[in-house]
Design a protein that fits this description.
Structural class: mainly alpha
Distance between the termini: 50 Å
Number of strands: 0
Number of helices: 5
Helix content: over 70%
Largest sheet: none
Shape: elongated
Order of helices and strands: HHHHH
Number of domains: 1
Radius of gyration: 17 Å
Length: about 150
């Protein structure tokens, strides 16, 4: 219960942050944040962001498993959550890589929730997986159009 609430709190904060970023415009009324690919620097940020969240979540879930989260599978729950947190952060920044993180989240969540007995949640993540592939294709197309317009 607390875990789900904290995830939704994070999503809410990141959604507001992303909304603010996506709405910002420069002096010529062009959006400041546009769909783009990650360079090596951003790849390092992503992996560091994911790694930090994974370690913290794994440690917390391992510690809390006995008394507060008996159904937790620390390594799997931490992976699914850390990939989702990373995906949400990158989505706020309009990075194409956000979709790869969402795909990883969904692939991890399908069996995770099935094993926990949440079959409908598992199906929900399967639907989200299909949507993530669609989102990835669309953002790649838009990033390519933007690159072609610059040339």
């Amino acid at each position: 219960m607390f875990g789900e609430a904290s995830v939704n709190f994070y999503y809410t904060i990141m959604s507001i942050y992303g909304w603010i970023l996506w709405a910002r415009k420069d002096g010529q009324h062009r959006h400041i944040v546009t769909i783009s690919y990650s360079d090596n620097r951003w790849l390092t940020y992503q992996l560091s962001f994911f790694g930090a969240f994974y370690v913290v979540l794994y440690a917390l879930l391992s510690y809390l498993k006995k008394d507060f989260a008996p159904g937790a599978i620390p390594w799997a729950d931490a992976f699914a959550s850390a990939t989702a947190f990373t995906g949400m952060w990158l989505m706020a920044k309009k990075k194409v890589a956000s979709w790869y993180w969402w795909i990883a989240t969904n692939i991890a969540s399908i069996p995770l929730y099935f094993i926990k007995g949440y079959v409908f949640t598992s199906v929900y993540y399967f639907i989200l997986l299909i949507l993530a592939f669609s989102g990835l294709a669309e953002w790649k197309r838009k990033a390519k159009e933007k690159a072609m317009a610059i040339l």
